[in-house]
Structures are given as structure tokens and as C-alpha cells.
Design brief:
heterotrimer; A mainly alpha; B mainly alpha; C mainly alpha; A: 2 helices; about 90% helix; C: mainly alpha; 9 helices; about 80% helix
Chain lengths: ~55, ~220, ~250
């Protein structure tokens, strides 16, 4: 099986790659979005702690 | 127990009569939506007869949803609802009474008017009766299911958009069997099966929906 | 109360759950990557070309697992809703909240890949088939749950309101599915069978199962990770969060 044949999917290229592509994009994007969310929370907590220690001193 | 039920229904009906424009706006909404469809689709009687069941039922869903927001809102704002939930009377009956009053005000007039509007769609006498019967069976189920959504969104900002989002997917079985009954009659298949299913849905909603509504009200009014 | 149940409840405290989830996530992610990798290899290089549908049928290797996941996840959310209402644990509601976006994503993917499968097979992007229609309604239910959670600021109220909505939804799903099916047969609509039962080779079934297991592992990893973020957002003021290693960095 050569590469062109493989990507052509027997004429179904548009349908097959749109399906697998959308699935891949979403399933890669979701963990990345979650990582940003986690970083934002951590940063917010760190800032909160900093502000509170400054107030105390 | 029945006297509590009656007291609640009479109270809510009196309140509704004081603000008649609310009652009438739901009804006129129904009339206008139903009358708009021929303008959008065209006046061919063949087509109109075909789409009539669906149009009437979708319009009924939307109209009965319009007033849902007000089902508990006024009582919630002035604290009456909290008092009601604190009384030793069973909450199930209280909620059922409020829903029944809501149905009398929004569902019944709409069902009674539907045969008249059905004439615009060139429906025969028999489908017209079926339409009225299914609306009388289906709209109480709509009020019951809708009450859950109204109770969950009580006092939230933007609850006007949220209620349809929560409630419309749950309305689908009622829509299918209600519109299906009229359609089956028009096409000569007989509507009995659909009407039985609609009654079953109503019975299930009658038992289950007030329970969920009471639970949701307790959470929201806390 | 016996020993086992005490042990169990220990993990329902966010402070205990948080580090445990952190340790589990990489493992589940690794399992997911391996299984989905194997699944992709099988679906493109091992599974034979279908004699009727050509190469286009390979879409079912993502479509069917996504559709399965979309239904499983709603059931699991409802399970957590019951746990939350019965045992009054905060973590249960966080779990159903953490699962909801992933469930909605798989529902969307099932619809999307279904459309791309339907176009070459039936010549139309959308058919009002009972299964497709139910999937669409399931998508609406997910959106309703997420919207309700988003609209309620008070977390305690949000948790319990969400749980009630999930229970109402779970009771309704069979009724909706049955009525849509009834509606579909009366209208002589397209009734399609995705898998065609007996004619399906076992390699196809195995590939779908491996993909589905991979999606499972992925869902667990993603949900645990989202639950960890939700815990941090809610428990920002508590002492154990302040003492976490990762904040000092």
C-alpha cells in the first residue's frame, strides 16, 4: 500500500479524514485546555497567598 | 388534603385573574404563532393540512413554556414559597395545586381555542376533536415537566433562556405522541395508540414530576 | 459501619482525592495513548476493506466508540448524582461536573462522524433515524446540564440542582428513545443498522472495543484532571491547598 493510496481511502478521503481529524483535534485540544485551566488556578492561588502574606507583614 | 389543594388552586387562580394580561399573552402568543405558519409556508390547503398537527403542538409547547418562569417566581420573591414549604402540609399537594392552576390558566384555554384555529388549516371535524383531546391530555404533562425546570432555575439571572434549554428536550415525547395522534387520525390510521401513550406519560409525570419539583424547590429556596 | 465503607469514604474527601487523582492521571493517559494507538493501527492497516462500503466504513471505528462513550458518560454522571444526593459528598457532584464537557464532546463527535459516514453511505448528511435523533437530544441534555451549572453561583445549590436535573434526564432517556423510535417507524423513516450484526467480522468488533477502552481511559484521565482543577477553584481558601507543592513553583 503506498502513501497516496492510503490517504485517498478509496475515494472516501474527505469523509474518513474529516471524522478522524475532528476526533483527533478535540481529543488533543481538551487536555491542553485543561492544562491552561490548571495553570490559571495555581497562579491565582499563588497570588492570593502572596497578597495575604503582604497584608500580614 | 383536598381542601389544601383547592385553597392553593383558588389562590393562584385569583392571583392570575388580577393580572389578566399574563394569561392572555400566552394565549395570544399561541394564536399568533399558529397564524404565522401559513404566511411563511403558503396557503395551499394540502400542505397546511399536513403540517397542522406539528404546528399546533410546537406552538403549544412554546406557549406553555412562556408562563413557566412566573410559576414560582412571585411566591419566591415575597417569601411566600418558603413559608409554604415550612408548613406541615405535604409539599407534594402544594406543588401539584400550583401546577394545576398553571395548567388551568395556560393549557385549558389553548386547548379549547385550538379547534377554532384548526379551521384555518382546513382540518375535518374528527381531527379537530382529537387535537383538542390530545392538547387537554398533553398540556398538563407539559406543565408538570416544566415545573421542574422552573423550580431548578428559580431566582437565577438569565433563567428566561435557561428554562427552555432544560425543559424542551424533555417535552419531546409529549410532542411526538400529541402531534402523532392528530396525524394518525388524518391519515386514517386511528389515534388510539398515541392517546394511550399520551395518557401514560401524563400519569407518570403526575407521580414523578411533583417529587422532583419539590426537591428542586427545597434546594433553590434554601 | 464496617471497615470497608470507612476506607471508601476517606477518598471522597477532596484533600485525599486530589493527590491520588494526580498520581492516577499519567497512568490512564498512557493507557489511553497506547490503546488508541493500537486501535488506529488496527482500523487502518489490519481491518480489511468492506466489500460493500469500501474504505469509508473505517469511520465506524471512531463513530461507534464515541457514541458508546456519550451514553456511558451520562449514566456515570447520573450515578455520581445519586451518590451525591444519598451520601451528601462534595466530590460526587464535582465528578459529574468534571465529566459533563467530555460527554458533550463525545456526543458531538458521534453526531459529526455520523454525518460524515452518512453522506457517502446514504447520500445525505443527516437522516432522522431514531438513533441519530436520540443522540441529538442527548447532546441537548448535556448542554442543559452545563448551562445550569454555569448559571448557579452558589456551589452547594449548583451541585444539588445539577444532580436533580441528571436524575430527571436519566428517567427520561428511555422514554425519549422509545418515543423517537415509535415516531420513526410510523413515518417509515430510514432505519439503518450501523454494524449489520452477523456480517461484521470479529476484527472490526475487536477494533471498536479497543478504541472504546482507549476512550474510556482518556475520559477517566481528563475527568480526574478537570476534577482536580474544580477542587482547587473551590477550596482556594483551605489550608491544605495553600500547602501544596505545585503552588510554590
Amino acid at each position: 500500500m503506498n502513501l497516496v493510496e492510503f490517504f485517498d481511502m478509496g475515494g472516501y478521503a474527505l469523509y474518513v479524514w474529516s471524522s478522524f481529524g475532528a476526533t483527533a483535534i478535540l481529543m488533543i485540544a481538551e487536555p491542553l485546555l485543561l492544562r491552561t485551566r490548571r495553570r490559571n488556578v495555581l497562579r491565582r492561588i499563588a497570588r492570593l497567598i502572596r497578597i495575604q502574606t503582604e497584608e500580614q507583614s | 388534603m383536598f381542601s389544601i389543594f383547592r385553597a392553593i388552586v383558588l389562590r393562584d387562580l385569583t392571583l392570575a385573574m388580577r393580572r389578566r394580561s399574563d394569561v392572555l399573552s400566552a394565549l395570544f402568543f399561541f394564536v399568533i404563532v399558529v397564524s404565522l405558519f401559513p404566511l411563511g409556508i403558503g396557503p395551499e390547503l394540502e400542505t397546511l393540512r399536513l403540517i397542522a398537527p406539528g404546528v399546533f403542538w410546537v406552538a403549544a409547547l412554546l406557549a406553555s413554556m412562556l408562563a413557566l418562569e412566573k410559576l414560582f417566581a412571585a411566591d419566591f420573591e415575597d417569601g411566600t414559597l418558603e413559608q409554604m414549604l415550612l408548613t406541615p402540609q405535604p409539599d407534594f399537594i402544594l406543588v401539584l395545586g400550583k401546577i394545576f392552576a398553571h395548567w388551568l390558566v395556560t393549557g385549558v384555554p389553548l386547548a379549547l381555542l385550538a379547534p377554532l384555529l384548526g379551521l384555518q388549516y382546513d382540518l375535518d371535524t374528527e381531527p379537530l376533536w382529537i387535537l383538542m383531546l390530545t392538547l387537554l391530555l398533553g398540556t398538563p404533562a407539559l406543565s408538570l415537566i416544566g415545573a421542574i425546570g422552573a423550580a431548578l432555575t428559580l431566582g437565577l439571572r438569565g433563567s428566561g433562556v435557561l428554562v427552555p434549554l432544560l425543559v424542551l428536550p424533555l417535552y419531546i415525547p409529549v410532542l411526538i405522541f400529541g402531534a402523532g395522534a392528530v396525524e394518525a387520525n388524518v391519515s386514517g390510521l386511528g389515534a388510539a395508540g398515541h392517546i394511550y401513550m399520551l395518557s401514560a406519560i401524563l400519569l407518570l409525570a403526575l407521580v414523578a414530576a411533583p417529587l422532583a419539583t419539590v426537591a428542586a424547590l427545597r434546594i433553590s429556596a434554601e | 459501619m464496617n471497615n470497608a465503607s470507612i476506607n471508601w469514604f476517606k477518598y471522597s474527601s477532596p484533600a485525599t482525592f486530589y493527590p491520588l487523582a494526580g498520581r492516577l492521571i499519567p497512568w490512564f493517559m498512557a493507557i489511553a495513548v497506547i490503546l488508541i494507538g493500537i486501535g488506529l493501527y488496527l482500523s487502518f492497516f489490519v481491518a480489511p476493506t468492506d466489500y460493500k462500503q469500501g474504505e469509508g466504513y473505517r469511520i465506524i471505528f471512531v463513530h461507534v466508540p464515541a457514541a458508546w462513550m456519550s451514553m456511558f458518560i451520562y449514566l456515570i454522571m447520573a450515578f455520581w448524582a445519586v451518590m451525591g444526593l444519598v451520601f451528601n459528598t462534595r466530590l460526587s457532584a464535582m465528578m459529574s461536573q468534571a465529566l459533563a464537557p467530555t460527554g458533550a464532546m463525545f456526543t458531538f463527535l458521534a453526531l459529526w462522524t455520523g454525518a460524515f459516514w452518512g453522506k457517502p453511505m446514504w447520500g445525505t448528511w443527516w437522516v432522522w433515524d431514531a438513533r441519530l435523533t436520540s443522540e441529538l437530544i442527548l447532546f441537548f441534555l448535556y448542554i442543559g446540564f452545563i448551562a445550569l451549572q454555569g448559571a448557579i453561583d452558589d456551589t452547594r445549590r449548583g451541585d444539588r440542582a445539577g444532580a436533580i436535573l441528571l436524575l430527571v434526564g436519566v428517567v427520561n432517556i428511555p422514554i425519549i428513545y422509545f418515543s423517537v423510535k415509535w415516531w420513526n417507524t410510523l413515518h417509515q423513516g430510514a432505519s439503518i443498522s450501523v454494524t449489520q450484526g452477523s456480517s461484521m467480522a470479529s476484527i472490526m468488533l475487536n477494533t471498536m472495543l479497543i478504541m472504546a477502552l482507549g476512550f474510556w481511559a482518556y475520559t477517566i484521565a481528563v475527568a480526574l484532571s478537570r476534577a482536580r482543577s474544580i477542587i482547587l477553584e473551590r477550596e482556594m481558601d483551605s489550608q491544605w491547598v495553600r500547602e501544596l507543592q505545585e503552588i510554590r513553583q
